[in-house]
Amino acid sequence: MSYRSAQLTRRRLLQTTATGAAVAAAGLVDAPALLRAQGAAVKLGVLHPVSGALSYSGQQGRLGATLAIEDVNAAGGIKALGGAKFEAVLGDAQSTPEGGNAEVEKMNSAGVAAIVGGYASSICLTASQTAARYDLPYLVDVGVADNIVTRGLKNTFRFGPGFGVIAKTALDNLVTINEAAGKPAKTVLIVHEDSLFGSGLAKLLNTQLPDRGFEVLDTIPHPTPTRDFNNVVLKIKAQNPDLVIPANYYNEYVLLARTMQQQRVRQKGVYSVLGGAASSYKFVKEFPEAAQYIMDCNHWFDPRNPKALALRKRVEEKGQFYTYEVFMNYSCVLLLADALERAASAERAKVIAALESSTFSGHLMPYGPTKFVNGQNQGAAPVNTQVLGNDIQVIFPQTFATAKPVFPMPPA
Amino acid sequence: MLSPIILVPAVLNGLLTGAVYGLVALGLTLIYGVLHIINFAHGALLTAAMFAAFFAHRLLGLDPYLAALGLTPLFFALGYGLQRFVIGPAAHGEDRNILLVTLALAVVIENALLYGFGADTRTLNLAYAFDVVDVGVAFLALPRVIAFGVVLAVALVLWLILALTDTGKAIRAVAKEKLGAELSGIDVAHIYAVTFGLGTACLAIAACLLIPTYYVNPHIGNGFVLVAFTIVVLGGMGSVTGALIGGLFVGVVESLCGLYLGESLGQIGIFIMFILVLLLRPSGLFGERA
Prior knowledge:
The complex is a heterodimer.
Chain A lengths: L1 H16 L3 H6 L3 H9 L3 E7 L6 H20 L11 E7 L4 H13 L4 E4 L3 H13 L4 E3 L15 E3 L4 H18 L6 E7 L2 H16 L3 E8 L7 H10 L3 E5 L2 H13 L6 E5 L7 H6 L1 H4 L3 E4 L7 H12 L6 H20 L4 H9 L15 E2 L2 E2 L5 E6 L2 E6 L16
Parallel strand pairs in A: 1-2, 1-3, 3-4, 4-5, 6-7, 6-8, 8-9, 9-10
Antiparallel strand pairs in A: 10-13, 11-12, 13-14
Chain B lengths: L3 H32 L6 H19 L3 H28 L3 H23 L4 E2 L8 E3 L4 E3 H23 L1 H11 L1 H6 L4 H23 L4 E2 L3 H16 L4 H22 L6 H13 L10
Antiparallel strand pairs in B: 1-4, 2-3
Helix pairs in contact in B: 1-5, 1-8, 1-9, 1-10, 2-3, 2-4, 2-8, 2-9, 3-4, 3-8, 5-6, 5-8, 6-8, 9-10, 9-11
């Protein structure tokens, strides 16, 4: 259905901007100049998996991006382009890399100035590659696999951290938490989803955990979607690791946690690295018992930033949850608006150049100074959270922690 | 890894899942046994039934187990109508045509669902979905225990219908000797449609049993129907007992393969078994020698 709305949008856009076939066809080079002359809209591709297995995350991502677009437009659009407004070209990747590719092709022919989104690593990887063929700037919203930004693609930028950085931070903090508690955790079991994101992360953890004194008892892959975690939980029960590390998407994460609760399997801790649900208000609200004491190292907004808190309020007033997809996408669109402002053009090469030299600081994340090296923002950093009571607390970094970690998990 | 702590629960879980597989296979084998056709629309009809159960809860607030009471006659009527007014007339008495008509039905149903509801994977969150029954050696999920009981009851009822009622006798007569049945005054077209209806009604029940612990999307039925084909081949084409026992067996195989080979490879055992049965005992465990 969103598929259809994307087409309608494009059609409408073509009708309004194209005085003839020339604009629609030539698009790339001529259109921006024309748009600028008219102070007309800048088209922005907003790509998410809004249907299929990842639909919840995709819809959340779309929400964040569209809220940011509303805000940019309400604040007078892109001033350097004569107050040009953003016009979203929505795309649905249908939770598959092929779906993402098809949408990039459509967005390209619709003449977008840039694309934001992708969400899943596997979708980001192929979608950015396709966009690269058209020198179309592609801003990854979440996709954490490190090879997204190590392929030398000039068009691909990632504002958030990759899993290399995240895994390192997660393990540093894990060691600190464990040592502070008197080293109760020695053995670990990893449960991961079997696409690019989960497998890549599991591989990384398998090489790094032993160096830090943890023994990996087992690494259990599962597909997305999986609807039965009984076997996985039985294996956890049999091997009885001190820590369980899940790396999967939202639905499977919730199911795993609930199955552990159902089968009365309670380890010393559940410490996720990029757990799909571990730092999600939706999970905490719906299943507070299953979520209790779960720790996570994930994307998180800066709790000291009033803009981030204001957005949280706005999202919650809409009856939605303030999940990381929302503020990540919101930040990405603002970053892009800033780049367009400085480029003073919607021409793709100029936008790419502006992104390369970005020092944008008006975002919602607790990051260091923005600086892109080979497309990766060097300031990006994850945060450690823990579910305590009915809320998600920041436990690391200490500079803005709101609670102390509770580890090991107290007995039920 | 062979410790009974995990082996026993895995086998029990397999048996519970297998019972529902068995019910899906029961519908398939019944239709094959009487009409001598492979119903390719079986998976799509299961998907449709799961959507019906899903929306009965979402829109009407009906518990899936209550919805089964309404959906079962509804799907019986649907199955009856499909065979009587679509498949039968379109086939012109040729088995080859029936095959294609059911395949076409599957395509139409699946795509209609896709058009109507999108490719989203939907789940119900029911209060009792994660309740457990403590049987000492394992915690069994309550909805699966209920499903197991219901499947056994349905199989028993079906067996009683076939064994004791006039319609049941007519169904068996048509299955054994169509021409003879026709000559002794049995309305074969009606019996065909009743059988198709019974097979489809099995799906409605299976859907209501699945929905509390499973998800639904427009392609969900295919996964089940592949397993059901394996069960039907394993149990013997057309054998009701075979379908049930085959279902339980396949459930256990899947559970153990998932445990030892990993979730991603859980179903590989089923298909290896499928090939082995075809090679070594093509008539199945309970099938009559062709």
